[in-house]
Amino acid sequence: MRSIGSLGDDNSKAYVSGINVDGAKLSETVNGVRTKTYQGGSGTAKNIKFENIRTDNVKNPIIIDQNYCDKDKCEQQESAVQVNNVVYRNISGTSATDVAIMFNCSEKYPCQGIVLENVNIKGGTASCKNVNVKDQGTVSPQCP
């Protein structure tokens, strides 16, 4: 597993905790390590670790999308699945797009306790919205 997703679909409650992904090589995929939650859901996704991962020409190497919507038209929702305590450790490689790290978190329920430790993804920048990020070791790209 490299993607935790579809949490909170159709305004549902979701509770995910204690996930550890250790060791993977991802080549020319759309998503690398991903957490996806729908707008309007509730619950928590917490205590998650992605470590010792290599990305090769991946479109979204590191991504949290807490505002996901697959409908034609989406309005901003009042609730969200809270994302807490996610660690990205020893992740390196290349991005196939201009954005290597994307944290698109909810304004009302921002992502908290996100740690980037020894992350080096070449070829893109970081886009970080409504997120609390702590860098440890060498991190590139960094959230502005």
UniProtKB/TrEMBL annotation:
Its main location: secreted. It holds the Pfam family Glyco_hydro_28. It comes from the Eukaryota. Keywords: Cell wall, Cell wall biogenesis/degradation, Glycosidase, Hydrolase, Secreted. It is found in: Secreted, Cell wall. SUPFAM superfamilies: Pectin lyase-like. Belongs to the glycosyl hydrolase 28 family. This is Polygalacturonase. It comes from Brassica cretica.
